[in-house]
Amino acid sequence: MEEMISQPKEGTTLDPWLIQPWGDVEGDVPTVPPELEAMAYEVIKEYDMSVSELLLITTKPDKGGAIWKIQTNHGPRSLKVLHRTPARSLFSVGAQQYLVEKGARVPALIPDRRGELSVERGGKLWIVTDWIEPLTPAAKVDLTGAQQLCFGLGEFHKHSQGYTPPKGAVNATRLHRYPMSYYKILNKLDWFRHIATLYSDLPASQKLLSLISKYAQQARNAMYTLEQSPYKELVQRGEATWGFAHQDYGWSNGQVGPDGQIWIIDLDGVAFDLPIRDLRKLMTSTMEDMGQWDLAWIRGMIDAYHQSNPIEPELMQVLLIDMAMPNEFYKHVKEVVYAPELFLTAETEAMLDRMEATDATKWPALQELGAQILEAPADWVPSLKAHLVPASNQSLALDTTGVVSPELAPEIAPGIAYEDAPSITPEQPLVAAEELKSFDNLITSIPAAANSVLPNYQEWVESLREQILAMRKTPTPASVPSFPTKARAAKKPSASRRSSASERTFSSDWNRKEPESKSIVERAQEILNNTSLNLELNTIPQVGQMSPYTQELLNKIMVKRKERRRT
Amino acid sequence: MKILMICTEKLPVPPVRGGAIQTYIAGIAPELSLQHDITILGITDPSLPNSERMGRIQFERVPGKQFDLYAENVAGFLQGKHYDLIHVFNRPRLIGPVRQMAPRSRIVLSMHNDMFTPDKISPEDAQTAINEVERIVTVSDYVGNAIAALYPSAQPKLRTIYSGVDLGRYAKTAEANAIRHQLRSEHGISDKKVILFVGRLSPKKGADILVRSMQQVAQRHSDAALVIVGGKWYSDNEISDYVAYVRALAARSPVPVVTTGYVAADQVHHWFHAGDLFVCASQWEEPLARVHYEAMAAELPIVTTARGGNPEVISLGQNGVLIETPEDPNAFGEKISMLLSDTGKMRMMGQQGRKLAEQRFGFSRVIREILEVWR
Hints:
By secondary structure, chain A is of the alpha+beta class. Chain A is built from 20 helices and ten strands. In chain A, strands 1-2-3-5-4 form a five-stranded antiparallel β-sheet, with helices on both faces. In chain A, strands 6-8-9 form a three-stranded antiparallel β-sheet, covered by helices on one side. In chain A, strand 8 (254-256) and strand 9 (262-264) form a beta hairpin. The interface between A and B is large, with 53 and 56 residues.
C-alpha cells in the first residue's frame, strides 16, 4: 500500500519539461540546454511579433535563468526567463508594470496575445520587454554621475510607493528584516573566525582573525542602535507606504538612456523595503571603491537622492545606522567559506589592509553626518524576538466564485545583464601567467574573425564558441593560486583601484613582456583598440556589432575557467 | 466516514518533492483508508494529475504555493461538498475558511511545528481555529505546550500523537548488515567508529557545530569518522553559504568527514544501518525530529540536544544522552567521546532504543491513535 502511494504514476500526465539549474557557473560562452532554447521559441509564439534574431546574452546556470536579446518587427526586445519561483517573479512583474504605469524609466513589458504580461513555461515566468538602447553607464570620474544615479534611484522609489502585489504573488518584503539580516551578518563573522582559526597556516588568516572582533563589535553596535532607533515605528507604516527597493542597484542596473536620464533595468529581485537600502549599498560600495569615505561625495549623493525622494530625519537615522554595519567587510570576506585556501592569500591580506584604511575614514565621516552609534554593552544579547512581525489578520475574502489561477497576474521584464554575473576588478591579474599565451592568441584572432564575418554576427559568435571550446579541451598547465572570483568581483567598476591599473601604458610587444603585470581587461582593451573596428566599450552595440558583450564575454571566460579549475 | 485530509500549500502529496508532513500523510493514509473513505486535498504539481485515485484514496490537487491562493482554492473545493470530518495539517489559518465552507463538518487539526506564534497567525485567527476544531493533534508535547502557553483555551483540545517509523525497514537484519558493510567499505570507513548526522544542512540543524566538535573527538578517538547525510534543501544563497562553510570546516577535520549529499527518502535507512552513533545537533526549538525514531529503530545510541521536543523521546542514559548547551562544540565532543569509549554502553543504548521504538513508535500505533481521534 505504501509503495503504491509513494510514486507518482507514470504516463498519467504530459510530463512537461521543467527548467532546472543546468550548471554551477556560466560556461566560456553563455549556453542553455536545448530544451530551454526550444522553449524560448515557444514562448515567442505567444507574442504578436516576428523575431528575426535571437541572441543569448547571459545566463544563470545555477539558478535557471537567461536573457536573450531579440530582434523583432517592433525593434529590439528582451526575452527573459526569470529564475525565481513563478509566485516570486509575479511580484516583480507586477512591480515593473506598476512603475511603467507611473511613468518610471524602466523597460515596458510587452503583453502576450492574451494580454498577459508574463508567460509561464517550464515552471518559470517569461517576460518580454523593450530593449532600451543605448544605455551608457553614468560617469564615475566625478560626483555628477553618482548624483545622477541617486536622483534616478529616488524617482524609482517614489514611483514604487503604493504598490500592492497581484493575487497569487509572493509578498516579497525585506522591510522587517533589518534586525535579522544584521544578526545573520554577526553570526557569519563567527564563521569567518572559525575558518581563520582552522586555516591559521594561510597568509591572510592572522590578519582576518585580528579584525573579526572589531567588525563584530561594529555589528553589535549597529544592532543595538537600531533597537533604540525609530526603525520599528517606520516599518509599521507598512509595505505599500514605503514601496519597494531594487535590491541590486548600481552602476550597471542604473544607466543613462537615450533621453539622458537614468533608466533602471533588471527588476526581477525587487522587494518591499525601506528605500534607503539601495542608497546605502550604492554609497558604501562607492566609498569602498574610492578607498576612502569622502564626505563631499556622500553629502552630494544623499542630496541628489533627497531631491527626488526626500529623506525624513528618522529615516536618515536608520540610513546612518545601516551604514555603520560592516557591510563592505562582510561582502568582501564572505566568500572565504567557499575556498579558504584560495581566499586567504597574500592578496587578500593586502585587501584587508586597504579595507582597514578605508574603514578608518568611515567613522569620522559618519560622525560628520550626524550619526550617533551607541556602544552595545558587553552583556547585551541581541534578540530577534522583539522584532517579530505580527501576522496580519486573515483577510481572505472568500469569493469562491472566482478562484484565481496563478497565471492571472501581470508581469514584467528586465533588461540586459544580471548584475551578479561576474565582473572584473583589474587589480589582480585574472589569468595565470602560463595561460596568457593561449588566451592572447584567442583574443588576437578576434579582429580578423570579426572583420571577415561581419555583418553575420551570429556566425561569428558560433565560431568564437568553437574556438573557446577547442581551447577548453586543451589541457592547461596548473594555475597559480588565484583569488576566488566571487570575492573579487566588485559589482561596480572600482574607481581608485582601477585607475592605478589603467594608467599604465602599453608597449607594442606586450605579450612578450611580463604579461602578468597587466590585467586581462587591459589586454582586451588594447587589442580592441588596435582593431580596425571602432568599438565603443561603454555603449550597447548595434545589431551586427560586437563589443561590450565581447568584452563581457572575454571577462567571463577567464573568470569561469578559473572557477571551474578550482572546483 | 467520509474524510478529507487537507495538506499544506508548500509541497504535493505523495511526497514526490519530499517534505516531512507529506511523508507522514502518505505513510498513514493507506491504512486509514481501509476504514474510512479518504480524500487528500493538496497542491498541484507538474508531475501529478489534478485528480486521481490511487488504491482506495482519492487525490485532489488545487494550485497552491502561496497560502492565500491555496486557502481560496481549498474553500472553492469545499463548496457544495460534504465531509463528515476534515483533518487539516499544520495550517491553523485554514480553519476559518474551512469552517465557513463546511459548517457541519467535524474539524481536526494536526500541528507539526510552531504555527501558532504571533508572527505566523494573528490572535483572532488563532482563537477562531482553536474554537472551531474539536481536537488539536501535536507531534510532541513541546508543540502542544507552546500552543497552550499562548492560548490556554487550547489546552483541553490538545493531544500528542508521536510520529512513527517503519520498524521493519530500519531493523538490523542480515540484509541491513550487508548494506552496512558495503556502504562503509565504499566510503573507506570500514574500520571506523561512525558518527552519523542526518538532516538538512542549515544553521538550525547544527552540522557546523558537530563538525567542529570532531577536533575534540579526535583527541581520544583517532579512528572516528563523521558521516553527514543530507543535501542542501534550498537553493537560496544563505544556505549555499552555510553548506560551503560546513565543507570548509570538514576539510580541516582531524577525522574523515563523509558528505553524502541528498539521499532519497527511501534510501536513507541504509545510512542508519552504516552508523554506530547517531547525533542530532539541532540548535533551534524544534518540534521533534523524526530522525530520533529512525535512529532508535536502527539500534543506534543517540546524542541529541535539549531543544524543543527532542528530549521527550530520550530516557536519559537508556537510549541516549542530551546536550544542554547545543551551541558548544566541546559539549558534543565530550559526550561523543564518552560514548565512543564504551562500546558496551553503546550497544545497550541501541537495544533500549529499538525496544522503545517497537513499543511506542511504530506506524501502527500512530494509525491507531489517529483513528481514536476520528472516532
